[in-house]
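name: query_chain
kind: protein
chains: 1
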Amino acid sequence: MSLISLEFTVFFLIVMIVYFMLPAKMQWLWLLIAGAVFYYFNATALQCLVFAVYLAVNYAASLRITEESRNPARVFRAVIIFDVIMLMGLKYTDFFYDIYRWVAGLSGHRINEGIYMKVIYYSDALCPPRISYFSLIVMGYLTDVYWGRIKLQRNPGKFALFASYFPLMTSGPIVQYEQVSGSLWDRKHDFSYERFILGAQRVLWGIFKKLVISERLAVMVNEIYGSYELYPGLYVVFAAACFAFQLYTDFSGLMDIVLGFSQILDIPLPENFNTPFYSESLAEFWRRWHITLGGWLKSYVFYAVQETEAMRRFRKFCTKKLGRKKLRQYNFPQYIGLLISWFLIGLWHGGGFNYIFGVGVYMGLVIIASELCQPVFKKLTEVLHIKTQCFSYTLYKRVRTFFLFIFGLSFFRADTLSYGFSMWRSAFSVFNPWIFFDRSLYSLGIDESEFHILIFSMLILLTVSVLEHKYNGVLTPAEGMPCPQMEHVRSLIRKQNFIFRLLLFIILFIMIICWGHYGSEFNSSDFIYGRF
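structure:
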């Protein structure tokens, strides 16, 4: 059941109508039932059973950690190991099998392909959809319970609702318990016409980004990535840039749809994007891109690694050898934590070395290198008398960050790590800037009129992003949770006359109907991050 489908629209309307008619004590239960129905239509019966067993094991473990166990640390470690094995064993079987086959090939050991193909088949059959999201949500909850940061949720139904709230069972955001528990069941939710309109506007904007922009960019990206030998030089750079915007409009569009539907239900969710292409460094970029994943890893991996006994000893060793002043400049314990976190980010994005390198280790190494080189950069700007407080320098940093990002991200789209490097070798094999002026781009799967629609739509996106960035740092609280810059854009629209607002709504709707790209290979449920 895709979020962009008539079936989901009918499903959501039924859920919404019944939800607001129910008393406060029954609303959370209705959401739990809705989540079960939604998951059932997106998974097999066996996958639903595996998901239910997973939740039951983690709920029982949370009780043992806080109430019955004499050794809560042992219970906590055991259930986290169980969760990791579930995630790795079911989601990344192909990856581990490829590693085993590679090692076996080096040693000359023959393997039984039939047995391992069966293992892969059964792991795929058992793997619950969206396991990459709900496993992090549940592990974060258990960690908070073990650390004593939150109060144990004794109601198994409410625990299940937290882990399976149906808008989250698409592609996140990856929430923490304290972010949503207050709104999922602790208060009465009444229908609000204004909130319904704001949520619907955001849903429509997300559909526009997905169908009008992302799907058109996908056609060109697929054409170049599928036959990069025919498109050398700047075609590869163009494809990498297009994929960055394809992924952004796809994923942020999905988040707009999810957050819009949840806003209608009066359950605010944390933001996942904050105008990332305005970032002036790669570290800042990842604080603005997939925010909840970075926040989760920072809270439960990076800080946890820093507090381990081994890291404390290493920090003492570095302090002894470098001194406190040098350690602040070359914080090697922190860099180790960063590399571990970035390795996990890459692994989480997919089972393959192209993911581990492109959106993992590479990003971490660039961020660490930029930290180490800060004194050099500062000295250069002083020697060359470069003005750092001006638009041109800010623009330079944003462009630099963009190209550093798309280089790594291109491996996310490549089939393998070697395929990604082959593409970039092809990129430097020829210099062909004329492709941007001789109509060559019109032969990449979309014709001239389609290309013009894409450019116009991108200009609309740019206009909205400029408005979003204008309000950067000015957040509006809603039920104790910061709202995004997008809220301010809709607030600006809300201040206009009714006729103007109605025209904007109608024009956006017509553009989606007339310009939405439904190519022969289009799949309405095929959001890129929905595959995780």
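note: Residues 145 and 431 are 57 Å apart (CA to CA).
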